[in-house]
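User: Please predict the structure of the protein below. I'd like the answer in C-alpha cell form so I can feed it into my own downstream comparison script.

Assistant: Understood. Taking the following sequence of 301 residues as input:
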Amino acid sequence: MKYENTILGLIAQTSIHAGTGQNTGVIDLPIQREGHNGWPCVFGSAIKGAMRANAEQHYGKASINVIFGPETDQAGDYASAIMISDARLVLFPVRSLSSQFKWVTCPAALERLNLDRQRFGFDKIAFDELLLSEMQAIIHATNPQNHKNSLYLEEYRFDLIEQNLDKVLQLLKPLLSSDYAQAQLDQQLVIVSNDDFSYLVQYATPVNAHIAIESETKTVKTGALWYEETLPPETVLYVGITAVNARSSDRLPEWQAKKVLNVLLSMFEEYPWLQIGGNATVGMGWCAICDSRDYQRQGEA
C-alpha cells in the first residue's frame, strides 16, 4: 500500500486543556499524559477530532468523509484514509530567573523525535551524545548565558554545560513555524536529564482554580470549586500523519495517498492554526501548525 507521511509541529499559543475526563487526586481536571512516563500528550483521537471539525468548516461536512471516514452510523462502510499519532511533547516552557522562560527538553525526548522522523520518512539527524547528570543542564555554546555557571528553572538550580547543539537545533527547527521562534530556540533551548525533565513536566504545569457564581447574589455557588490543569503557552508538541489511498471504493481512483495528505493539510495554508482540547469558548487550545515538509523544501531550495 502506498503511504504519504509528514510530521506537524504544534506550538501552543494559548493554554491547552486536553483532559482525561476523570480526576486523579487533588486536581479535578488533569491533562492527558502518557501512561509509562507521565509526560503530557494529546491523544491521537483528540487531534483527529479537532482536524475533522476544522475540515468540516473548511470543506463542508459531506466532502471530508473520503479522508476521515463516514459518519458514525455508517462507520462500517469503510475506514479513514489517514492515521494520526498522539501529539508528543518535545519542548516544555519552564520559568527561569535568567530569562522569560526556557524551552526544556531531554535526551529521551530528542531520541524519540529522531526515531519518529525515520518512521515518517524523514532523515535521521545524528547529534553528539548528550551526557549529563541530575541537576545539570546543557545549553548551546553560543548562548549569551554561557558566561554564567548556573541556571535556575522554577526554584531549582542547575549547573551549566556548554555544548555545540547545532544538530539538535536542526532536529527541532522543522517543528517551529516562524523565523522568530527558530531564532529564539538558539537562546532558549535547555537540555536536562531524563529524570529532571520528567519531574518538571509533572509538577511545573499550571493548575488553575475555577468557580461558578450565583448570578443573583454574585457569590460562589456552594461546592462549585474545581482545579484544572493545563499545558502552558509555548509548549511544543509534534504529531505524525500517514495518508493511504482512499478506502471509499467510488473515490479510490482519484484519491491516492498523496492527494489525501495534500488536501488535508491545504486547509492550513491560509489559516495555519488548530484548536484542540476543551474550553474553546474562552480562547484555549490554539496551536500554530508547522508542516516539517515545508522546512525541508526550504532547505532544498
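That's the full C-alpha cell string. The chain has eight helices and 14 strands.
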